[in-house]
Amino acid sequence: MRVLTDPRPAHWITADVPFMANTSEYGESSASLQNYASTASAVKLASLGLIMGMSLLGNASLSLLLLKDRSLHKAPYYFLLDLCLADVLRSAVCFPFVMASISAGSAWPYGTLSCKIVAFMSVLFCFHVAFLLFCVSVTRYMAIAHHRFYSKRMNLCTCVAVICMVWTLSVAMAFPPVFDVGTYKFIREEEQCTFEHRYLKSNDTLGFMLMLLVIVGTTHVVYIKMLCFVYDHRKMKPAQLVPAISQNWTFHGPGATGQAAANWIAGFGRGPTPPTLVGIRQASHPGNRRLLVLDEFKTEKRIGKMYYLITLSFLILWAPYISACYLRIFARGAPVPELHLSAAVWMSFAQAGANPIISFMFNKELRMRLRACFSCCLGTQTPMEPYCVI
């Protein structure tokens, strides 16, 4: 019987053992990296799909409610409708391309022109929300501090003009980088086509990000001013006068200063309309009212709270991404951790679905109208108490 032996020297045979071990370890590490990459891609796709679905469902439902219910056809909700439509467009236009790039292995499977268009739309919607929230903060302050002027001027035409101005400013901010070669491009670390944030001496990234920060900061300053105004007027108490004796609204006595009739005109009166004041302030014509009564003040304050929470959520969800951009602006070659950057980008995506949740949670009127809409859809009528609208 023949015995097969290896013709190579003994030191060759022993040298192959560590080589084979290194090869197996390399194969195991590459397999683990592939598993990690596939798991991360699956998590990103699932989370972005959830954000996209919530954004489309929530914003579309709120938009239909605002369009259908005539009692919501007033200035604050015109701006909310514009916010919802912008978030729907962002979710339907930008997010599918991000999902396609994730599926392609963190690569852009389309051309350069399509990348610039998607990046332009992404930046446009970001600045649109920032500019619109600033304009809303100004109108909220006017509704509280200058209600007479607000009720006269803040009609449908004014709201349309403000919305058109906001879109114009957003286009002006997002369009110039289209002509800068290499400014709008696919950022592999962010899985999206967007503005390339480089060192401050490389392009105009600093001015681009400073504008966004100034807008958000100014919006909070306006809300702080409105809060100070409400706090100062909360401390004011009505004068305590000696009650007058009244017979058929003919006041006489030590307190007969006409204050009772003035209070009734201002909305603090109770009971039927005085005969001498019939026709001065009719509840059936809300457009003729110019004084901010207590119920209207509560409504305006509630709407202002809702918009401030929307503004605060915009700041919280975009703050990590903005901080990462400023790190790349001021620190040359400073790498942002991949996990932090991915979380920051996905938080900015989540902002598209946050507005409907905040609106329904912190606006009683929207919840009541939503329940009424559902009851109408089910064929049942729920009696509702009448209440004043602006």
UniProtKB/TrEMBL annotation:
Keywords, sorted A to Z: Cell membrane, Disulfide bond, G-protein coupled receptor, Glycoprotein, Membrane, Receptor, Transducer, Transmembrane, Transmembrane helix
Transmembrane segments annotated in the record for this chain: 45-67, 79-105, 117-143, 155-175, 208-231, 307-331, 343-362
Domain of life: Eukaryota
Domain G-protein coupled receptors family 1 profile: 58-359
Primary subcellular site in the record, as a coarse category: membrane
Subcellular location: Cell membrane
PROSITE patterns, alphabetized: G_PROTEIN_RECEP_F1_2
Membrane topology annotation: Multi-pass membrane protein
Protein name, as recorded: G-protein coupled receptors family 1 profile domain-containing protein
